[in-house]
Amino acid sequence: MVQAYILIQTEVGKASTVAEVISKIDGVIRAEDVTGPYDVIVRAQADTVDELGRMVVARVQQVEGITRTLTCPVVHL
């Protein structure tokens, strides 16, 4: 199992809507709107890194109102 944080910038005023829509995507553990340089932070999981990448590109980045994403895989050092 691979987990990651997905940091999301949205159009002005769209953070709560984006977080709500993303929270319903299969594999998303949690999606919250936050303050700071990013508007939404998502915790997601998938079986493989490739599946995680496909989820981000095919599902998350297609949500209306998103302007940029940054995916940060969780590592165990």
From TrEMBL:
Checking Gene3D superfamilies in the record gives: 3.30.70.920
**Which Pfam family name is an example for this entry?**
AsnC_trans_reg
Q: Which residues form the Transcription regulator AsnC/Lrp ligand binding domain?
A: 6-74
Q: Which InterPro entries has this protein been placed in?
A: Dimeric_a/b-barrel, Tscrpt_reg_AsnC/Lrp_C
Q: Which domain of life is it from?
A: Bacteria
Q: Which ranges form a coiled coil?
A: none
Q: What is this protein called?
A: AsnC family transcriptional regulator
